[in-house]
Amino acid sequence: MTEPKISGDLLQFRDQIDAIDQQLLQLLNERARLAQAIGHVKAKTDAPVMRPEREAQVLDKLNASNTGPLNVGHINLLFKQIMSACRSLEREVQVAFLGPLGTYSEQAVWRFFGHCVVAEPVESIEEACRQVQAEITDFAVVPVENSTEGSVARTLDALVGSDLLICGEVLLPIHHQLLCQTGSLEGIRKICAHPQALAQCRNWLRQYAPGIEQEAVSSNAQGASMAQQDATIAAIAGEAAKDRYQLKAFQEHIQDDVNNTTRFLVLGRQATGPSGADKTSLVASVPNQPGAVYKMLEPFNAENVSLTRLESRPAKTGKWEYNFFIDLQGHQTDAAVARALDQLKRTTSFLRVLGSYPAAQRDVKA
């Protein structure tokens, strides 16, 4: 079969792209050499390899000057990978995440850090935190809440029980698929998935798989692994699990809520400086007396600080005692936030700032 004739115009465009690619290659290597030089400087002062606020500022500046046709999502995707590759020339960042491989937690790692990191799957949220505390890894990525099913209690408890700091967040759209070996429900006797995934797809399952047994397992990736080994099992999982376990989709986007999103936290040992668009998370408890919660919240109103999340959870220190988890807009070093926190210390029996970090709302997916 003969090759189709390529027009002169197309050849001209291809030659221009080839020339630009060579320029990009030269500039990228120049950037990489500068990153290596920065790494040598950081090594002398034991400075951290990754500064989340700095990387957020780089993306903000690029997007502010971008004139298209690439959009915000394209710019973030491209430059996160560039920064990840350059950062790895200083030192490979190590990240623990709630495994096994093929989970949404793994996707959150790649979304935040890029692909040039060492990602280590662990068996529990507590183990992910322990690895950072023991300095086995630099960071941990753990789920904290889902837009449909609410908070992840084990993560909230782990935050209270450790001295780790929140360094960043990831908002990951959740696109569930029903996966099996053949791509057909014929012969399927059981659907395996994490309990939250089963709950997030309950209406779809009721309508399209009403007679099939459902089994809750420790993760969607475990369900996918079981489906890979047993043709009578289907799993609810995402694209990464489908590829990793070589499964076929019977149906994509089976989640009941099209806006289903899980928020992940990036935990580390370092405090994160202001990026210009930040959030602060804290946990507090107040005496069990009339008006205590009102007094706890009043400083934020007085300083015009916007709260984006308020949730209570049993404190496990006594009967009917609660911790309040609060997310707010701004960095703890911002004047208004600092004044509100100072007032808060006087009304709470326990207060811990869990971290200030770049807000993920700036990260728009292409």
Automatic annotation (TrEMBL):
It is found in: Cytoplasm. The keyword Cytoplasm applies. Residues 4-94 form the Chorismate mutase domain. Residues 281-358 form the ACT domain. Residues 10-37 form a coiled coil. It catalyses: chorismate = prephenate; prephenate + H(+) = 3-phenylpyruvate + CO2 + H2O. It comes from the Bacteria. Keywords: Amino-acid biosynthesis, Aromatic amino acid biosynthesis, Coiled coil, Cytoplasm, Isomerase, Lyase, Multifunctional enzyme, Phenylalanine biosynthesis. Pathway: Metabolic intermediate biosynthesis; prephenate biosynthesis; prephenate from chorismate: step 1/1; Amino-acid biosynthesis; L-phenylalanine biosynthesis; phenylpyruvate from prephenate: step 1/1. Residues 94-269 form the Prephenate dehydratase domain. Its EC number is 4.2.1.51, 5.4.99.5. Its main location: cytoplasm. Catalyzes the Claisen rearrangement of chorismate to prephenate and the decarboxylation/dehydration of prephenate to phenylpyruvate. This is Bifunctional chorismate mutase/prephenate dehydratase. It comes from Limnobacter litoralis. The lineage of its organism: Bacteria, Pseudomonadati, Pseudomonadota, Betaproteobacteria, Burkholderiales.
